[in-house]
């Protein structure tokens, strides 16, 4: 079948593509009628394209809502983790303070033991 430019329809489409012309692909929903003009067929194609776009918009809106829900859940998880992190930091500080207290006590005990040992040695030397 020849196109309007004298080439076969496929070749006509290829040449139109090469020129950058817009080609309306026939939708699966549209059935060309031999009684309709080319403009009417293109109008039907445009109507089908608008329907597809509207369907895509609905899908996109649903996807956006899903992403918002996921973002909300993600934010809740982040906030929960921040709270847990805060609690862990507080526990860590408490443990560090306890460790420091124990270390200080140990140092004091060590010093006391060293003093006692020196005194014992002094006493042993004096006894001899």
From TrEMBL:
Extent of Basic residues compositional bias: 26-35
Compositionally skewed regions (Basic and acidic residues) per UniProt: 10-22
Region described as Disordered: 1-40
Superkingdom of origin: Eukaryota
Protein name (database record): Uncharacterized protein
């Amino acid at each position: 079948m020849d196109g309007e430019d004298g080439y076969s329809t496929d070749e006509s489409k290829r040449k139109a593509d090469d020129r950058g012309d817009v080609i309306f692909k026939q939708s699966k929903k549209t059935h060309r009628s031999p009684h309709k003009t080319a403009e009417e067929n293109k109008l039907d194609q445009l109507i089908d394209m608008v329907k597809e776009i509207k369907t895509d918009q609905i899908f996109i809106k649903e996807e956006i809502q899903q992403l918002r829900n996921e973002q909300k859940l993600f934010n809740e998880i982040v906030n929960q983790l921040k709270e847990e992190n805060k609690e862990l930091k507080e526990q860590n500080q408490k443990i560090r303070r306890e460790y420091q207290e124990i270390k200080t006590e140990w140092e004091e005990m060590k010093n006391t033991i060293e003093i006692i040992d020196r005194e014992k040695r002094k006493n042993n030397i004096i006894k001899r």
